[in-house]
Amino acid sequence: MGSPDVVVIGAGAAGIIAAWRSASLGARTLLVEKTPRIGTKIRISGGGKCNITHDGPIEEVLRAFRPNEARFIRPACYRFTNRQIVEMLTSRGLRVYTRPDGCIFPVDQTAKDVVAILEAYLREAGVELCLDCPVRGIEAMDGAISGVRTVDRIGCRRVVLAVGGSSYSASGTTGDGFVWARALGHTVVKVRAALAPIMLPIPGLEQLVGVALRDVRLKARSRGKEIARWDGDLLFTHRGVSGPTVLGLSRAVAEAVEAGPVLLEVDCLPDHSFESVGAEVRSWCETNPRKQISGVLEGRLPRSAASSVLAAAGVEGTTAAAQTPQKQRNRLVETLKGWRLGEVGEVWLEKGEVVAGGVSLDEVDSQTMRSRKCNGLYLCGEVLDIAGPVGGYNLHAAFATGYVAGETAARDALG
Ligand SMILES: Cc1cc2nc3c(=O)[nH]c(=O)nc-3n(C[C@H](O)[C@H](O)[C@H](O)COP(=O)(O)OP(=O)(O)OC[C@H]3O[C@@H](n4cnc5c(N)ncnc54)[C@H](O)[C@@H]3O)c2cc1C
Q: For 193-212, what is each residue's pLDDT tens digit?
């Protein structure tokens, strides 16, 4: 290749699709990637299975995002839909299924097979791939792109910035894009953890590590006010909590914790009212007066979680049900409906599936992904201030914005 028409920096979800689209339109396209392989983060996505995208009408998919983010990615999601990415993969032999919650996964293949198919698309489109090649900077002159620095200098007038965020830094994403975007005149919205585990000191945590609570409701409170809630499973880890409920809340918690203490609380029985739990405990005690009070939690909570709930309620588990004072039974009901785990220490950005924050959406044209600050610069994927929930939304946002960025860069280059 002589000098490229378009240089795409970062071979993640956004960069791969951008490079493929750009080359398919006839632009000489160079895809430069820091790590030794493409799709490094796709390979670890969905626990190695890859939740490719989310099923359903686009408007429904968009509702999962914050309103300003949904507004921004709407044109791109219509240009390159969830159906299109699925067709792109299934037409090359990937078999997929849609879970009842709308998440789309490969059936018997894995994230590696998804990447292999994307790699074949790049090859066929004639994308030149440069792996193990960290970009060190982007050059601009008079408000327009003039080149990219690796070990060498690559002269070019169109650069697609697709270097992702800054979590899971071992996968190549070390926040380089934020620094360059700022230098090129962009505002970078404060980068915070999202879809991340939460560290907090929980009394007796050692006994709880590895324990999962199913179908609970996790709530976060700040200054006594509930700021977020999420239903699903919760997992105790060496440092605190993780699992779908925690990832779901983490962005709101990361924001709130800057303003003051945030407390986490679990409703262990969200489908039962306070009154009905009270009635169940009463009736169990009447039927089983000689049994230890801890038995009331059997079948409701894993054993070690039950001990922690009893301890948090100040109830001695070995006391016979009939001997357990009413006050203690009431406290047990209160704890089942609102087990205070403690005060959040930190939301663990490095272990987040995405980061919130990034290049300000106001400074990028959502129809084209062109930078409004620097001519010849296009931005896509997680480097932008977008962070959807778990469910295939983030990969889709990256694929869709990448498609538009690659297309515009190629069209601008080819005149
Ligand atoms: C553990 C985990 C599981 C996840 N599971 C899912 C899931 O199942 N479904 C879902 O929708 N989302 C999932 N996500 C989120 C999803 O992977 C990201 O939102 C998505 O990969 C973002 O795409 P991107 O192309 O913007 O960035 P990335 O995929 O992160 O790609 C950026 C690329 O740029 C490269 N790069 C960085 N700096 C440079 C440089 N200086 N020079 C050259 N190259 C550079 C990086 O090496 C990287 O390959 C998961 C994330 C993680 C961490």
A: 999 999 999 888 889 999 99
Query: 3-state SS string over 379-402?
Result: ECHHHECCCCCCCCHHHHHHHHHH
Provide the whole-model pTM. Answer: 0.95
Give how far the C-alpha of residue 312 lies from the chain's centroid of Cα atoms, to the nearest Å.
32
Q: Which atom of ligand 1 is nearest to the CA of 13?
A: 25
Q: Are 72 and 43 in contact (CB under 8 A)?
A: no
- Nearest-CA neighbor of 101 among 252, 233, 212? 233
CA-based Rg of the chain, rounded to a whole angstrom? 25
What CATH number is given for 6-192+356-414 in this structure?
Answer: 3.50.50.60
Task: Work out which ligand 1 atom sits closest to the CA atom of 14.
Answer: 25
From atom 10 of ligand 1, which residue's Cα is the shortest distance away? 392
Ligand 1, from 395, 401, 404: best to mutate by most atoms within 8 Å of Cβ?
Answer: 395
pLDDT tens per residue across span 372-383: 999 999 999 999
Q: Which two tokens stand for residue 307?
A: 């001990």
| pLDDT > 80? residue 84 | yes
Q: Which tokens sit at 219?
A: 């709530």
Measured from the CA of 380, which atom of ligand 1 is nearest? 26
